[in-house]
Design goal:
mainly alpha; single chain; Helix Hairpins; 13 helices
Length: about 280
């Protein structure tokens, strides 16, 4: 296949995509039509759609872990629908429209990759990440209105899921030098917070228990940020691992699973761990 043939194929594919996208825009507008639209869709707002955005994101992540290309494609479509619905709600509320979303994204892509769009220059992965961060920080400074870091962060995390808010806080404050130097520091802090949680539990003070649990969770999220681990992905893997082990517990316990004592479950759990690790359980 010649370079010209590949160009023509790509061009035809892009034209087909644009045609499909125009149909999608029309379909979403039909869903939201004040007279003939879907009654449920017409009632939705940015806020009311948040649970569905979370749900669709989780299903997309599941499809990636399952390595199922058909499901990945389908779930991406569901995510795209969420984007389209929010853009249409923005248009109805006279806040913004789909074109603004696309233009802002194009602007961000071009501005943050000067080595691609301003001048053709090959850069290393580390250099590209540094350029991204430098430009991102300069953009923040240009739009910075409040002098207080905490006030700005309070505004930004107000409507974010708490875990995402923690990540944003951690990333912003470390730009000002408020950051961990090592995992040892974080583990020391984690141990301190766990001890305070234990004391709160002993005192049976529900408010203190909740506060101290939040401190432990906040510190754990700081650890994941420091180690560059996605906590959602890590937890997803643990959920799957737990269920894999529990299935072996079910096999061994059979119909008597509800009759197992805590000690029985501990024994069966060790068998499951050893079996999945490829080790033969010790006989008694």
């Amino acid at each position: 296949m010649t370079l010209n043939d590949r160009y023509n194929l790509q061009k035809n594919s892009d034209l087909g995509t644009l045609k499909s996208f125009k149909i999608l825009i029309s379909n979403v507008k039909s869903l939201k039509d004040k007279t003939w639209g879907c009654p449920w869709q017409k009632r939705q707002s940015h806020k009311s759609l948040i649970p569905f955005l979370n749900e669709e994101s989780s299903e997309f992540i599941d499809a990636i872990y399952e390595k199922n290309a058909d499901n990945i494609c389908e779930e991406l479509g569901d995510l795209l629908l969420q984007v389209m619905l929010h853009a249409e709600i923005g248009y109805e509320n006279k806040e913004f429209e789909l074109n603004d979303v696309i233009k802002n994204l194009n602007k961000k892509i071009i501005n943050r990759h000067p080595y691609i769009f301003n001048k053709k220059e090959k850069v290393s992965l580390e250099k590209s990440q540094q350029i991204w961060e430098d430009i991102k920080n300069s953009e923040k400074e240009a739009t910075h209105i409040e002098s207080s870091i905490s006030k700005n962060l309070n505004k930004k995390i107000k409507n974010l899921p708490p875990r995402v808010g923690t990540d944003k806080i951690t990333n912003v404050v470390k730009e000002y030098g408020f950051k961990w130097e090592s995992t040892e520091q974080i583990f020391e802090k984690l141990e301190e917070e766990i001890n305070e949680l234990k004391e709160a539990i002993k005192s049976k003070n529900d408010l203190e228990i909740k506060n101290e649990y939040g401190d432990v969770y906040f510190t754990l999220l700081n650890l994941s940020n420091f180690l560059k681990i996605n906590p959602e992905s890590a937890l997803q893997k643990t959920n799957i691992k737990f269920l894999d082990r529990f299935s072996i517990v079910e096999e061994h316990a059979g119909d008597n699973i509800k009759k197992q004592t805590p000690k029985d479950f501990q024994r069966l759990w060790q068998i499951a761990k050893q079996k999945l690790a490829g080790k033969a359980p010790k006989s008694k």
